[in-house]
Amino acid sequence: MKLWVNGGLQDQDTATVSVLDHGLTVGDGVFETLKAENGRLFALDLHLDRLARSARGLGLPEPDLDEIRRACAAVVDANPMRLGRLRITYTGGLSPLGSERGDTGPSLVVAIGEVGRRPDSTAVVTVPWTRNERGALTGLKTTSYAENVLALARAHSQGASEALFANTVGRLCEGTGSNVFVVLDGRIHTPPLTSGCLAGITRRLAVEWTGAQETDLPMGVLDSAEEIFLTSTLRDIQAVHRVDARELPGTPGPVTAKAMEVFAERAALL
Ligand code: PMP
């Protein structure tokens, strides 16, 4: 496997960035995950926009998006596969052993790994930890993902593929790597960005294409919603057939099934 590190392609087994990279030592970095289907990168411009926004939010130097485009194309070309997860990581670079950033400039790594297609439905659990809707990093896709790693491990230990967080005021927020939608009285709702969730690209497309409403939702909605689904780059729209102990028979329900159909049709044209 070949990946891109700071200006050129390298072999994955021997590629290096500094062991004192601020991304490694303190999680000072931002990233994007894109879907590459037979070499076609889905929604590249939207991902690059969000990467630049996250970098700005974290005070990193403005990323060179032309270089990142070249890097993505080179990595995709060098590693042909049916369905790939392309990851762009942009970090603070070689830095002293503290929170202050060094002056060597950022590091850029673009890597790819093959993934399988996600099942059409999945189980989720809720976790007792909260997303902070007012934090300095809220809404930024930073590499500080340890909380998500922990919550996802809990989900896996309970036979689920995703964990859902509330925010600090007990409102439904998002998953470790996905946004959440619920169907109430036949209408689709998703938490607003003010809930502290990431501005998911799939979320944005799903809202645009299905007319879903952005609504502040209590966690209890997971007990009463007619249907629930997740969105993310690798899941697209994925129905939820179990939340904690609650089974949702007949998944995907009619509204989710329609949303999946509309999403697949529109995404193919993007
Ligand atoms: N929330 C979080 C915390 C995520 O990591 C992701 C995955 N990037 C999402 C939501 C979904 O975003 P997207 O649709 O852009 O993949």
Written overview of the protein:
- By secondary structure, the chain is of the alpha+beta class.
- Helices cover about 30% and strands about 30% of the residues.
- The strands form two sheets. Strands 7, 8, 9, 10, 11, 12, 13, 14 and 15 form a nine-stranded mixed beta sheet that branches. It has a six-stranded antiparallel beta sheet with strand order 2-1-6-5-3-4.
- Helix 5 packs across helix 7.
- The longest helix has 16 residues, at about 255-270.
- It starts with a strand and ends with a helix.
- The mean pLDDT is about 95.
- It binds 4'-deoxy-4'-aminopyridoxal-5'-phosphate.
- The site of 4'-deoxy-4'-aminopyridoxal-5'-phosphate has 13 residues, from helix 5 and strand 13.
Write the layout of secondary structure elements.
Layout: E1 2-5, E2 8-11, H1 22-26, E3 29-37, E4 40-41, H2 44-58, H3 65-78, E5 83-91, E6 107-114, E7 121-131, H4 146-157, E8 162-167, E9 172-175, E10 179-184, E11 187-190, H5 201-210, E12 213-214, H6 221-224, E13 227-232, E14 236-243, E15 246-247, H7 254-269
Parallel strand pairs: 7-8, 7-14, 11-12
Antiparallel strand pairs: 1-2, 1-6, 3-4, 3-5, 5-6, 8-9, 10-11, 10-13, 13-14, 14-15
Helix pairs in contact: 5-7
Bound molecules: 4'-deoxy-4'-aminopyridoxal-5'-phosphate.
